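Table S7 (text form). Paired inputs.
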Amino acid sequence: MKFLVDAQLPIRLARLLQEAGYDTIHTRELPQQNATPDSIINSISIQEERVVITKDSDFVDSFLTVQQPYKLLLITTGNIKNADLEILFTTNLLLIVDLLSQHNYIELSRDSVIVHQ
C-alpha cells in the first residue's frame, strides 16, 4: 500500500509509515512542497494509487463529489501531539491497512477507526 501524507500532518508520520515498510511520501517532498494544491495531490494519488492521509475536510468534499483522491484516510483527532499521533498509528496500522484494502474512505479519530461507505 502506498500513502501520501498531507501538509498539516508531520513528516514524522511519513517516516513512521516508511519504517513500517510502506511506500510513503509527504507533501514536503513534492516540487511545491507543502504549497502543493489539492488538485495536484489528487492527481498524484490517482496516478500512483496512493492513499491520501489528511486532516483537510476539502479532500472529503472532493472524494464524495468526484471520487478523488484514489483513497482517503481522514484524521479527526483535533490537535494532537506528534508522539500521540504516532502511537495512534502504530496501534491501528494493521487495521487501517486492512480496511483500506477493502474500502476507499476511512476515518481515524482518537478512539476509533470508522469506515465510510
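Next pair, protein 2 of 2.
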Amino acid sequence: MYHFAFRVPAWTWPLLILAGAAQAADRVLSLEEAVKIALEQNPLTRVAGESAAGAKEAVGEARASYYPDLAIRASFNRWERHAFLPSGLARPGIPSTIGPTNDWYTGVATRYTLFDFGRRRAETGAARARLGIAREDAGRVREDIALSVHQAYFGLAASLEMEGVARKALTRAEDHVRVARSRKEAGAVPQADVVRAQVEAAGAQLALEHAQGMVRVAAGSLNTAMGVPVEASVEVDRNPREIIPPASIDLTEALERAVSARPELRGAQQRIEASRRGVDVVRGAYGPKVKGEASLGWRDTSYFPQDKDWLVGVSVELPIFTGFSRKHRLARAKSELSREEADARRLMQTVRQEVWAAHSKLRESYEATVSTEVQVRDARESLRLASERYQAGAGVITDLLDSEAALARAEAVRVAALWDYQAARSTFQRSVGELSPKSQP
C-alpha cells in the first residue's frame, strides 16, 4: 500500500481539513484516501452529481402528470356586445346591444387526465432511463478521476525513485573522480582520466537536477489531480504494491466483468431504454385523450359575486390530421433507437478491446519488472569488477565509466518498469470498471 506525507503551509490547512486530506502537518495519506479527496474536490464530480440530481427532478416532473391540476381563478371583464335578435322580436325601444356591464368571477377549477394512450407511462419511463444515464455518467467520471489520481501518484513515486537513482549515480561518479585523481597523483594514469571522470560527474549532476525538476512537476500533477493547492509539498512512501503475475488473472472472466460493470455500457443500455420509451411517447400521440374537468365559482356584476357558476364534464380529444408531424416524429424516434442500439454494440467492442489492451500492457510491464531485476544485478556486478580492475591498474577509465553508465541506465529502466506495472495494473482495473469506490450520486 502507498502512503505519502503531506506537508503544507498553515494557510492551506482549512481547505485540506474540509477535504478530509489532513488534520495536522505530516498527515500520511494512503492512495485510497487520495482518491477519496479527489472525488470530493474535483469539479467534474459536482458536475456529474448535479446532472444526476437534475435528472432525478425530471422523474418527479414526469410523475406530476398522474396528479390532477387544481387552480384558483379570478377575473374581471367589462364588456358590451351587439345582440342579433330575430326580425320578429325587434321592436322600437328595445336596445340592440347588451352592456356595458362588469363581469366579476372567482372560483376553483380542476382537470385530470383519465386516459392518454400510455403517454404518461412512457414519459415517466423515459425520465427514469435518463436518470440512469446520468448516474452511469457520474460513475464513469469517478473512474476517470480515480485513474488520473493513480497515474499521478505513481508518476510522483517514479520521479522520486528516479531522483534517488540520479543521486546514487552522482555519488558513484564523484567517487570515480576521487579514484582517478588518486591514481593520477600516484603517476599511474594520465590527466585525461581525471578530466573524463569529471565530465561524467558533471553529466550526473545535470541528470540529478533534471530528476529533481521532474519531481516538482509530478508533485504538482498529483496535487492538481487531488484538487489541493499545486504548491503543497508532497512526499511519497515508495513501497510498491504487491506485484501479481498476470497469469493469475482470468481474462475471459475479466471481459465478462467489464461488460456488466463498466458504467459506459450500463449507460448505453439506459440510452436504449430512453429511446424505446421515446418511441412509445410518440405513439401515444396517435390515441385519444380523455380528460375530466370540474369548476365551481361565483360570477356577478358586483365586486362580490353572488351567482353560482359550476361545471362538471368529460372531454375526449382525438387528433385527426397534424400535417404528418406525428409520422415524422415516430420515424425519427425509431431512427434514434436504432442508432443507440448500434452505438451500444460499438461501445461493447471498444470496452472489450480496452480490457484486452490493458491486460496485454499489464503482461508486458510484468515481464519488464522480471527482466530488469536481472539486468540491474548484472550491471552492478559489472561495475564492481570494472572498479576493482581500474583500482588495481588492470583496467582503463573507459571501462569503468561505461559500466557506471550501464548501471545508471539499468536502474532507471528498473524504476520505470516497476511503476509502469503499477500504472498498468490501475489501468486494467479501470478497464473492468473496478477502480473507484462505488457510490450513487
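Residues 1-25 have pLDDT under 50 and may be disordered.
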